[in-house]
Write a structure and sequence with these properties.
By secondary structure, the protein is an alpha/beta fold. The longest helix is centred in the middle third of the chain and has 14 residues. Strand 2 and strand 3 form a beta hairpin. Helix 3 runs parallel beside helix 4 and helix 6 runs parallel beside helix 7. The two termini are 39 Å apart. The chain has 8 helices and 13 strands. Bound molecules: S-adenosylmethionine (SAM). The site of S-adenosylmethionine has 19 residues, from helix 4 and strand 8. Belongs to the class I-like SAM-binding methyltransferase superfamily. Cation-dependent O-methyltransferase family. One of its GO terms (molecular function) is O-methyltransferase activity.
Length: 285
């Protein structure tokens, strides 16, 4: 519903959501509630027409209290434009291109995400970082490239074959001294770091593995990161599934629950950013 005339329904019953169907939205009940039955109570919904904006790539909140603020909805034309405006170092481009021929290439973060991670590390002046989920190394290399002399990135990954590619690129980029590769289950690595007395000594952490473990990784990393340090969680929008009450597979539920818990978690300040598949930046208080 990003272009042309569409309708946005405002609902009062949180159990009922809407899915766009062409220019109209149909009310849909979450699975498990009133199976197959669609209950429509017209008086409960306020219907408002979106103004038609030529070439508009924006959406508005259905709730008028957001002041009809239009926000960007990234389509493929705009996404290409964003990619054209990323400063991607040559070595990262080479790694991305090599990875694109491999199984699982869709797992690597996008260049705009990698650039944001590197920017956060630089803003923080981070020297000690952790990554959970390395794959072939795209996000870890973007962080390692901006670490200062003597900086360290603990890179946790369980797959040895992916790590071979990552290691080759750390070597070519001249950052292997900065990257401490931990081959194994990330939770075990993080627990042993805590046991080794490394608590509260890290500046920055990035989580991009095993969605069902998000809360566990977050709890472990909160112990390892210092006050003022940052933990970035990837895939928090999970291809949009988190916002669809009809989707209740275990990974979606895990991320949705993580997001819900985070809203109440006063140990951190948070900002959910709709970049890539969604990232939440958490700053430890
Ligand atoms: C989404 S990919 C990471 C992509 C990477 N951040 C990048 O930008 O290229 C997730 C990785 O986490 C690894 N992984 C999954 N579960 C893990 C676990 N329990 N411990 C360590 N690594 C794990 C997978 O083998 C996979 O390589």
């Amino acid at each position: 519903m990003s272009t042309g005339l569409g309708f946005v329904h405002q609902w009062r019953n949180p159990l009922i959501a809407f899915r766009s169907s062409g220019n109209y939205s149909l009310p849909i009940l979450p699975s498990g509630r009133g199976r197959g039955l669609i209950v429509v109570r017209p008086n409960c919904y306020k219907v408002k027409a979106l103004k038609s904006l030529p070439n508009s790539d924006t959406v508005e909140a259905a709730d008028d209290s957001y002041g009809r603020k239009e926000v960007i909805s990234v389509n493929s034309r705009l996404y290409h434009y964003i990619l054209d405006n990323v400063r991607e170092p040559k070595i990262l481009r080479q790694l991305r291109e090599e990875t694109s021929t491999m199984r699982g290439s869709q797992m690597q973060v996008s260049p705009d995400q990698a650039q944001l991670l590197a920017m956060l590390v630089q803003i923080l002046g981070a020297e000690k970082c952790i990554e959970v989920g390395v794959y072939t190394g795209y996000s870890s290399l973007s962080v390692a490239l901006v670490l200062p002399e003597g900086g360290q990135l603990v890179a946790c990954e369980r797959d040895a074959k992916s790590l071979e590619v990552a290691q080759r690129y750390y070597d070519s980029a001249g950052v292997s001294e900065k990257v401490i590769v931990k081959h194994g289950l990330a939770a075990d690595t993080l627990k042993s770091m805590i046991q080794n007395g490394e608590g509260s000594s890290y500046d920055f952490a990035f989580v991009d593995a095993d969605k069902k473990m998000y809360q566990d990784y977050f709890e472990l990393l909160l112990q390892l990161v210092r006050v003022g340090g940052v933990i970035v969680m990837d895939n928090v929008l999970w291809h949009g599934r988190v916002a669809d009450p009809l989707v209740n597979d275990s990974k979606t539920v895990s991320i949705r629950n993580f997001n819900t818990n985070l809203m109440e978690d006063d140990r951190v300040s948070i900002s959910m950013v709709p970049i890539g598949d969604g990232m939440t930046i958490c700053r430890k208080r």
